[in-house]
Amino acid sequence: MTQRTLLTGNAAAAWGARLADVDYIPAFPITPQTEIIELLAQWATDGTIAGRFVTMDSEHSMLTAAGAAAATGARVFTATSSQGLLYGFEVLYTIAGWRVPLVLVNVSRALASPITLEADHNDILSARDSGFLQIHTETCQEILDTVLMAYRLAEDQRVMLPVLVNLDGFTLSFTREPVELPAAAAVSEFLPPYQPHHAFIRGDRPMAQGAAVLGGAAYSYFRYQQHLAQEKALAVYEEIAAEFAARFGRYYGLVEPFQLDDAEYVLVMSNAFATKGKAMVQHWRARGVKAGLLRLRVFRPFPAAAIAAALAGRKAVAVIDQNLAPGLGGITYQEIAAALYDRQERPPLVSVIGGLGGKDISQGEFEAVLVALQQAAAGERVPGPWLLYTKPEQERMRTLLQIAGKEVQA
Amino acid sequence: MLRIRFHGRGGQGMKTASRILGSAAFRAGFCVQDSPVYGAERRGAPMAAFTRIDRVQIRERGAIVRPDLVVVADDTLLTDPAAQPLAGCDAESTVLVNSTRDEAALRQEVPAYTGRLLTADFTAVALATTHALASLSTALGVAAACLVGLSLADSLAGLDDELTESHMSMAQKEANRQLAQTVYAQASSWAPVREREDSRIAETAPLVEVTFDPPRLAGPSIYAVGNSPQRRTGNWRQFRPVLQVERCTRCWICFVRCPEAAISLDAQEYPVVDYDECKGCLLCVHECPTHAFTVEKEVR
Ligand code: SF4
Ligand code: SF4
């Protein structure tokens, strides 16, 4: 029976693992993810879940254990965040190269230095070339649903790659919202037990996995196969999304269009702050401005065609990146610009940086973005990357610098 | 939408209070969102929690900047620059302060605030009913539920949802339910908080361009030496540990365990509490093997 309850984003992720009936959970704590593994530890201890829960000595060991377990044919779940993801970073490429499926939840938290706790997406986006598929979520319900869909995607024979599911620290991880818990029986129909075909352990079928290769031709072949599997995953994802919607009544596309049909001015956003963008779109619509929002959801494989189709022909588009590649700009902006490059009707693009380190994006900042969109539509060039920052924030920053003993000019 | 902001210190249970309110509203059939925000977790440090209640899906995230109701777990937070519980409050806001002092005395501390200010000594009520400080979360969560117009039945159901997840004894749970009824009755005498007419989320501030600064400014280094002693943690204290020296065996456990290093040793090697720094976490009280500390309510 489905049940509606209040869950934090972290609890929703743990529920995803629980309903997916995972076999193995290697774990290591880090704020703001720890609640996920605390819940799973509790359930493993009291017998609520059958999977084996093991605490590890670092994220590097944790991800190594996760990949190795997946290579034995087990269904594996694990979670990390920020510095932890980076600490285990080399293993991400290794696991993807092994072509084994597992689901890794990342709870976004901005990277040190300076050290902080709140969300931005430089952690998750650093893994964009690792070979992991990557799905970004906006609500607690979506987190749970996406973990289930991620297993289907990872374990599909046309894909066989691990999946990273992202949720924002604090704004989702510790935030409770109403979540519908699907019935376990319905989930196991959607997601039957994992049947490994190429990577498993059986006494009568010895094999070597993750072999070394020398000479670029073998390496090129294997690495390019990861790319081809990612490309296949676009269509596989759409199948899975349609089946999920048919079974559970909730549809999640590769991207999510919000009030986009007749939209002239479009915001492109991802993750929890997309909710704020949607509220602004509604606010602007009430004022008669034809605004819309495109939310990025599946980020690897990159759904370039879906994005280009959604954005082509608009009066102007602002890509709000909650990340920054120093020396370049917004990361998703670069990819979206590339996706639009060969379209006839490519819209003027404004590159905005907002919400770094969890900084709020206030109503006034969104209004400034709308003004910039109107300028861009009128043919004015809006230089980017443009960091959203308010006067009170600047004043507060100057006070902090003064307290730190620095010479700040008035 | 109703936006409720809770301010407390780490350990005072304001995250739980925000969840009791959230669960109560959810039980009543509303869309709900609740979330806490804190830095590196530290008992006694200011924290906040947010509950949003609406009839439709909530399209807001993160901190509440323009609250309808603010609940303050202790009055030392009112003027704390790190907490700023009255930020974003205006003539339409309601602020509920847990305090032994009356409204007039509190208003003197926050003269700029023009909205409604309610106060009561919830700590005393909580201690009288449950003998547990942790039940302040029950008292303030249920008081807030009453103030936003939720029924007693929904408030109790919300409380039950939170109690099921705790490791409390049956007797303690029952005591919390009693406390909830007492507080609800008390809070019923206040007029409920009304939804705002306009949907503006916050004042809008002008934007600025962030420009290049030399690395001496642009790196996160601190040149001012020794400014942390200026941030005394003694005013965080709600309860004070008092040493009964005749029971002390000079084992120094308290001296080693005090997280603020607020305990030093005197010439005879007995512990001495520095009340300018002691934040009142009462770890020393719990750790002392001979129960040499007694606890006194702080009166300022
Ligand atoms: S003296 Fe006791 S109550 Fe005070 S800070 Fe230290 S451990 Fe906490
Ligand atoms: S822990 Fe108790 S007995 Fe030991 S030094 Fe402190 S007060 Fe004395």
Figure out the total of helices of chain B.
Answer: 9
Here the CATH topology of the largest domain in chain B equals: Pyruvate-ferredoxin Oxidoreductase, domain 3
Strand order, sheet with most strands of chain B: 2-3-1-4-5-6
Given as residue ranges, the uncertain stretches of chain B (5+ residues, pLDDT < 50) are none
Give the key terms.
heterodimer, A: 410 residues, alpha/beta, Rossmann fold, 2 domains, six-stranded mixed beta sheet, five-stranded mixed beta sheet, 14 helices, 15 strands, 18% strand, globular, B: 300 residues, Pyruvate-ferredoxin Oxidoreductase, domain 3, Alpha-Beta Plaits, two-stranded antiparallel sheet, 10 strands, 29% helix, binds iron/sulfur cluster
Structure description:
The complex is a heterodimer of chains A (410) and B (300). The mean pLDDT of chain A is 96. Chain A contains 14 helices and 15 strands. Chain A has two domains: 3-197 and 214-248, Thiamin diphosphate (ThDP)-binding fold, Pyr/PP domains (Rossmann fold, 3-Layer(aba) Sandwich), CATH 3.40.50; 256-395, Rossmann fold, CATH 3.40.50.920. With 410 residues, chain A is α/β, with parallel strands linked by helices. In chain A, α1 packs parallel to α7 and α3 (59-71) runs parallel beside α5 (89-98). Chain B has two domains: 2-187, Pyruvate-ferredoxin oxidoreductase, PFOR, domain III (Pyruvate-ferredoxin Oxidoreductase, domain 3), CATH 3.40.920.10; 228-297, Alpha-Beta Plaits, CATH 3.30.70.20. The radius of gyration of chain B is 21 Å and the shape is globular. The model of chain B has no long low-confidence stretch (mean pLDDT 92). One iron/sulfur cluster is lined by residues 241, 258, 260, 262-263, 273, 278-284 of chain B.
